[in-house]
Amino acid sequence: MVKYVDRKNTNCNKWDSLEGTFGADGLLPLWVADMDFRIDEHIIQAMHDYIEMGIPGYYKVPDSYYQAFIDWEREEHGFEVSREWIRFSPGIVSGFHMALQVLTEPGNGVLISTPVYYPFSNAINNNDRKLIASELINREGRYYIDFDDFESKIRDNDVRAFILCSPHNPVSRVWSEDELRRMLDICRKHNVAVIADEIHHDLVFGDNRHVPALSVSEKGDRIIMFAAASKTFNIAGLQNSFVVIPDEELRGEWDRFIAGLRITQGNAMGYVAAEAALRYGKGWLEEVREIIKGNYDYICEAFRESAPGVVMTPLEGTYLAWADFGAYLSPEELQPFMQDKCKLAFDYGPWFGGDRSGSFIRINLATSRENIEEMVRRIAGSL
């Protein structure tokens, strides 16, 4: 049974960094994308067993670790990964920073589809690349690619790389196979490399199905895919991510770059936890998905009754709800209302870019029903 954990005063970024991030403590945090759930007991036992051995020394990564990922991708996503394609990154954010240096040069244009996970834009700016944004189309709460704008932004700005978010954070879209093919076809036509962040690929709901970008790619496509057990199984602090590069030439470029950094391997506990999660954690994950979907459904129903002007984006993937309060609050009023009046902490729409995101909040659904009910009560009462 999945258990909620009170994480306050545990050096938890989500709960204990409120003063530094929002300038106020005592807020109910529903922002950072990690879960408030105790991880699967198989993972805990695997880590206990490793520590009990008593020597956390230099670690030889076992073949079983790679096989666990290969089996997971095949069984869960119908995608066959070859062992020689797999490389390591301490995290997906650090990974796409590195990928930008492999795939592009300073001053090159890099495309993102806004609103999108804000470390994408940070990575582009941190590496002296030119940020190019194609805004998604919002149709009654559901988001779509504007393919004409997508291609014109690439063509007009000499874009060299596109950072794909799949499933898309924060708008919860699970891109269809047709949508992915169209994006990749445009990138191929204009010689644009693709960095595919697929960290939320196991958090998909209803009839939606995650399609790995590499599964619809063509030979010679310059695509680097990033995946991890971290978001799926709530083990992000162990810093262990998979980098998948099928193209041999591109894989060589990655390897030469990484040799200069000497970041070829992570810490032992990350490997132990990730392997245990992928081998034994499916039952835990299924229960967590039910909790997340239940929390989302509760919010939708509660706002239909108490604040019917709130537009909830359909939850297709991720454990993040995207909610539009534009019927009640201006972009200037949104954060002061949520933070000062309701005493809540969210990620706010403007953080994710796009001209039309000012009235949105991103809500972390991976917490207790009690926290979700309290959030709704505060917002509805204050509205």
Walk me through the structure:
By secondary structure, the protein is α/β, with parallel strands linked by helices. Helix content is 42%, strand content 16%. The two termini are 36 Å apart.
Low-confidence stretches: none
Number of helices: 14
Task: Give the helices and strands as they follow along the chain.
Answer: HHEHHEHEHEEEHEHEEHEHHHEEHEEEH
Q: How many extended strands? A: 15
The spatial strand order of the largest sheet comes to 2-10-9-8-7-3-4
What sort of overall outline do the alpha carbons produce when their principal axes are compared?
globular
How large a portion of the residues is in β-strands, by DSSP E? 15-25%
What percent of the residues sit in helical stretches (DSSP H or I)?
40-55%
Observed structural traits:
single chain, 383 residues, alpha/beta, 7-stranded mixed sheet, 4-stranded antiparallel sheet, 42% helix, 16% strand, globular
Short description:
The chain has 14 helices and 15 strands. The chain has helices spanning 13-16, 18-22, 41-53, 63-77, 92-103, 119-126, 147-156, 177-189, 230-233, 248-261, 268-280, 282-306, 331-341, 369-382, and strands spanning 28-29, 86-89, 109-114, 130-135, 137-139, 142-144, 159-165, 193-197, 223-228, 241-244, 311-312, 320-324, 344-345, 347-348, 360-364.
In terms of topology, how is this protein built?
Layout (H helix, E strand, L loop, with lengths): L12 H4 L1 H5 L5 E2 L11 H13 L9 H15 L8 E4 L2 H12 L5 E6 L4 H8 L3 E6 L1 E3 L2 E3 L2 H10 L2 E7 L11 H13 L3 E5 L25 E6 L1 H4 L7 E4 L3 H14 L6 H13 L1 H25 L4 E2 L7 E5 L6 H11 L2 E2 L1 E2 L11 E5 L4 H14 L1
Parallel strand pairs: 1-13, 3-4, 3-7, 7-8, 8-9
Antiparallel strand pairs: 2-10, 5-6, 9-10, 11-12, 12-15, 14-15
Helix pairs in contact: 3-11, 4-11, 5-6, 5-10, 7-8, 12-14
